[in-house]
Amino acid sequence: MKYLNHVLAASAAISVTLLFSACWDNVTKVTEVTEVRQASVNVVSSEKDIPDCDKDNNGSFVITEDEKDVYVCYSEKWYVLNGKDGSTTAVKDGTNGKNGADGKKGADGKDGSDGASCSGVAFDSGDSTGFKIVCGSDTLGVILNGKNGKNGRHGLVPGLAKKLAKRMKRGINASAFFSGRENFSEFDDNVFMSDWPLYTDTSNYDRLEKKHFKMLADKGFDHIRFQIRWDTHFIGKKTECLINPEYMKQVRWAVDNTIANGMIAVVDEHELLMSQRVTDNNKASNSYTYKTASPCEKKIYQQITEEMKDISPDSLIIELPNEPTTDEYITATQWNDLVDSLIQIIHGIDPARVIIVGSRNYYSKDNLNELQLDDPNGLLMASFHYYEPYKFASNCGSGAPPADTCGNDTWEGTNNQKMAIYKDFEQVALWSSSHGNMPVYLGEYGTIYYIKDTASVEKWLTSITQIADYFGFATSMHNFGGDYYVYYFEKEEWVSYKLRALFNPKDKFVAPDRPDLDAISKKTVIEDFGDDFPKSKLSSDLGLGFNWGFYNSCEGSTTCDTVVTTNEAGTRSENAAMASFKTTQGHSGGGLYMKHALDLPENVSPYWAFNLNLSGTGDYVDLSKMEAFSFWAKGQGKIRLVLFTAYSDSIAAKSSDPGWKAGFYGEFSLSDEWTRYVVWANALLPERYSTMDTVGGEWEKAKDRVYKIEFKNGDGILRGVKTTVEWYLDDITLHGMELADFE
Predict the structure, then answer these.
(1) Bridge-partner residues for 77, per DSSP?
(2) 719 and 603 Cβ atoms separated by less than 8 Å
(3) What is the C-alpha to C-alpha distance for residues 680 and 212, in angstroms, rounded to an integer?
(4) Hey, which CATH number is domain 517-742, 3.20.20.80, 3.30.70.670, 2.60.120.430, 3.40.50.720?
(5) How many angstroms separate the CA atoms of 576 and 565, rounded?
(6) What is the rounded CA–CA span in Å between residue 175 and residue 166?
(7) For 17-26, 157-166, 384-393, which range has the lowest pLDDT when averaged over its residues?
(8) What is the pTM of this model?
(9) Do residues 710 and 729 make contact, with C-beta atoms less than 8 angstroms apart?
(10) Hey, which of 196, 322, 510, 714 would disulfide with 606, CB 3.0 to 4.6 Å?
């Protein structure tokens, strides 16, 4: 069954009976237009091909090609809508009869007054005309007219982004358009050639040929993400931002070939104008600022949408500018303003189109919380990119020559390594669930071509893909050609181990068990910020004397202005007692509040920490029975819970320090609303990039020798930041242990 476009429509207060013959007939104009629900229109060869009418397709429409009859599924019956004088006929499934005759609800189909017969009602709303379909008192949807039967506006299908995300399981990035030839002058119906040399071979350029679209579809890819650079293909004055129509035709050629081969096309603007100055090469040719670039971005997306608006929303997605950077080029407020403006432009032209939106800091998962998205119709899809651990996946960077010092790292697929990915993706999934279960698109992940250990590449790609599948993310590997290629153009060969990781993996990821946290009967409140603070509640309950402490990158220097930390009264941390950081505005009563004003040199990163020693010198706490650790927090940036241990087995010998201490952590991106964050014991990992991480230290071997709890905030904020960050903390709880377990 092939699908027609759905319609965004309006209903009318005044109805007229309409004889259906063809969707482009003249209609009667009505007034008092209001919004109605939507339904899809399907085409079948004849009446016998109409599927059963049930609750799953209630409200859908079918047109038969032989008789041009229009049917609607309503209350588990099909009704034909070209009956005369109200004699709407029920097809299939008449109650106690055929076609409604002698049925309980059809009243012999005479006028529908005694049953749930359906009628067509003409309407005229703005630039749209068509029929609304009324069954009983319900308006199920509409069919829009188009000029000469063509170019009707697409129907808005609520929740379409989620439906497309399920279809976009395996995608591939195509980067030929990222650096399309700047001297581009004419359309070629067979091939598009880039100016981007493949894997630094200047004699061989990234390209797309007609045959490649079928090849990709045959291998199992269900969508292509086109990385397109538009600003090098402007005509006329640069400030007019007019895209070369011949270049646009070539992009459209690629999109049409993608769709013709049964795949979904994703079109983006891959070189965000605000990030042009990141590299010296771009700095010489482009000095855009937000003020000058923002209007140009809007013109680009207006032209893209106008060109693509005739394509079904089922087949094409528009992605907003790729990988915006950070404050030097665009702030969170500016990015949200631009995102909102571009969504309005796209939906003003094509209101049914699904749009992909990513976060700042190069689509980092940690910046998703900055996004302020309004998505009443379910047409938005959030995106992030993932290349962790970067030292393995990208090593010396894209375009770097395969020197002996590059590509030597391995990735063994240990439990710790897989759990690091799992925790990162779980963070994205939690963000999604707190934003209406917005669908998520992992738009880029891949490995640079010169990594020597192909087994490591296969394991990494397999784990990324399977964990993304577990969380229900749509995925697109980077990329078809370029420096991360899955297809070797010179030899016309696929990279077999990469394809195997995507479509026929050797290993299967098993997600960790996650019981209901509140069902764990044993728990101990570490801190509720009550009357004893800064003495910890745990210390008070155990009759001990351990207090909370605080330090930051400026602690001990009263003249340091790198990080200025203040309490609610505005007192700097160097001059404030620990108790002054207590607030009455906690999650439940008292809590902790800290504010950090950052003014950093380009080579300085901020850090601050709130910590509690759990034992005296040489003593440790046994947390072997702990199942999870939870706390409530809100604010900006990331917060990291670290449990410091004395690692005593043979791994410690690999460190030059015989008294080596190791931290195991859980990390979260904060939001503006109070949120409970949970760190499960079986997901505690060595701090990323630490020596413990390198040698594969495990929580199981250190959990009986814990001596400090620490909350860190600031990790992940880029160097050279000049901003203000606030954070709140409350109700720190350990699950699986009671006070008696500490004795």
Answers:
(1) 74
(2) yes
(3) 45
(4) 2.60.120.430
(5) 10
(6) 24
(7) 17-26
(8) 0.75
(9) no
(10) 714
